[in-house]
Batch of 2 targets.
Target 1
Amino acid sequence: MILKIAASDLPWLNFEWHPDDHRLYVLKSPPNGSGVAVATPFLEDVNTEHEAKQGINAFIAGYKEQASEPDVRTGIRRAQHHTIILDTGILGAHHGS
Amino acid sequence: MVAYNKFYAFVQDIAQGVHNLSTNALTYALTPTANPPVATNSVLSNITQIANYTNMSSRVPTIASCTQSLGVLKLMINNLTITQSTTASLPFQFVVLYNATPANGNLISWWDYGSAVTLQAGDTFAVQPDQTNGILQIQ
């Protein structure tokens, strides 16, 4: 069974571990939330769910570190994409059924 | 996910017909770290917004729906990505939802991003309400 894991503070990234081919995939959606997610394998020989989660954590750490650095070829600062995910406000109480 | 904070006056404004949450121009205001909103604020002039929104895209999200089912009203607002162009924004930390249709700009709620953010040209700030439970429910 494919294991799907979301990156809570990077909502445009999702991850899948495919036990059948032992690969971890990153699924990247456009930052505006529309369009098709692109799946790219980034780690092979992943044999357990624990290894998958370790791989995902390492990927996210590297992703965040790279995102704040200038482009390696041009030296130009990369655009930053911030996201605030709003919790729902519940007003009033529910009475009756 | 960032906690919802209610302005006290919102429930009175609902009761007294200030808001039409289906059709009014609900808008996000941004306030700096030094000027957090407080629950007793009621209209836009009570909060201190950043001094200007120069070169920032629209802060008006699209209302997807405002419907009642089994006695629970759910207000659904689409995700909005604010894009900064040409020059940097002023730093902000708090996102305030208010109603720009009534002249006073009556306040609804706010959320704390957790730290100050300054958008450089090309940066984006995505405001994403819960797309299942809505931005708010009235029960």
Target 2
Amino acid sequence: MTAEVLDTAFVDAGERPWRLAARRLMRRRAALIGLLVVVFFVVLAVAAPLVAPHDPLATDWRAVRKPPSASHFFGTDELGRDVLARVIWGARASLMAGLVSVSIAVAVAVPLGLVSGYLGGVVDGLVMRIIDAMLAIPFLVLAIALAAFLGPNLTNAMIAIGVVQTPIFTRLTRGQALAVKHEDYIEAARAVGNPDRRILLRHILPNILAPILVQATLAIAAAIIAEASLSFLGLGQQPPAPSWGSMLNTATRFLSQAPWMAVWPGLAIFSLVLSFNLVGDGLRDALDPRQS
Amino acid sequence: MTVFLLRRLALVLPTLFFVSLLVFGLQQLLPGDPALALAGEERDPTVIAFLRQKYHLDEPLPLRYVLWVEGVLSGDLGESIRIKRPVRDLVLEKLPVTAELAALAIVIALSIGLPMGILAAVKSNSAVDYAATMTALWGRSIPNFWLGILLILLFSVQLGLLPASGFVSPTESLSRNLATLIMPAFVLGNAIAAVMMRHTRSAMLEVLSADYVRTARAKGLSEARVVLHHALRNALLPVITLGALEFGELLSGAVLTEQVFTIPGFGKLIVDAVFNRDYAVVQGVVLCTALAFILLNVFADVAYALVNPRLRG
């Protein structure tokens, strides 16, 4: 057997789990539908200036609280703004909040969890006690407190959500690092003299990415709800910029006169969150080696 | 058991220490002069000087922390700038409202989540199982506050059956109290029911394949008796323990639900405090929720260890 053949065999062996997972994911109808809906919302958010039928900020005093019609498919709000245009533009805030806050959490938590799990000892004990303390404060209560003290705007809301999600990822990464650090291939990497940094980044990290990816997908769903909640409370995206949460907040004042104002933004949050949850669940099953 | 309890309590102390650091640290996030920020719209120099003195803002940070902890340990959570009342009194006043809402929500969550979880496990991989799984997914995905708005639209605006907002104390009128709480409790319970259902389903699936259940079936007992008497009793314990851990979810949900239904509880207290820039109240509420959560966790662990001796080791 030549070295070339051996190389190919290793490349195949390395690629197979992810390719297999992708194939499994594609076979799951619910996850596929979820993925399509997520892609639909991403396209909507990116192409908002092209697809929104009206300017989301343009007020029209002659069209205040008009029910859905041919000129305004989702009706208009209390200032005569087109609800459909605002829902489309609102997708930007929600998706951005989901992606940015989870990225913040992953960027902080993964290195922290890796080091904590790999080194153990005092570092691990200290990190875990801080994580326990953060987990002791309910998710939204901590996010509200952080957003309140930092100041109410979308950026601070994303930071607050990211910070609040950090302990979950840290715990997950640490657990995974602990589980693999005594595996033979890690011992072998250590025995041939690899430095700790290389072992962490080249050997441990690639092998624990799957559960982190699953958690990230599910965390985006939670972050979208959290951003909508903070905006609903007035601590996220500030008016007049469109956001699904703040649209729902306004809608509560006009429930009997303009119920459509409350239906569409809520339906958008629900569809997007449900889709991310479907993709997350599908990914978890697809990446689970016990699944046939 | 004493050793287990002591070991568990020893773990709580460092967590409490870090929680106190975290809550105290919130104040340091305020931009600019904390005395000015704490005073909110109040620009009276005497108020600002009073705040500076009360919160020892001229002192070094570690000393301020020690003084703050001393205050907290003696029951002084600070004073509300807006209402001019001790935060401790406000918390104690609002707590029963949220506690009643939470208790009702748990009852609703149990009455939806448990039967659905049992049915899903008994009829595993059937249409019932899929329906239950879909319901759980719905519970996880629907934003609490939107569900609340939809219920108000249906039951208050369209049908006129229930009040859209407000709260009536049970001592005043029990029926009106329940009428004001049933919708918010359902909204809160819905999310917890989804989690309960998943826990119950997996616990029941595990128990149903156990030897003693097979023995019970072999003895010729009816399926209902096997499921309810033998399996459920053993599956229930982890479900209830995990349920206690849902307390955090309940409090997070209560913040929004109380806002939607204008219920003067713990959640509304923190939101109002945020908008009034009443930072001492925000800190006090965060500290109390964390404390309650930690104690509930200890309680759940101890309860679990009491009935499961293997965990005490």
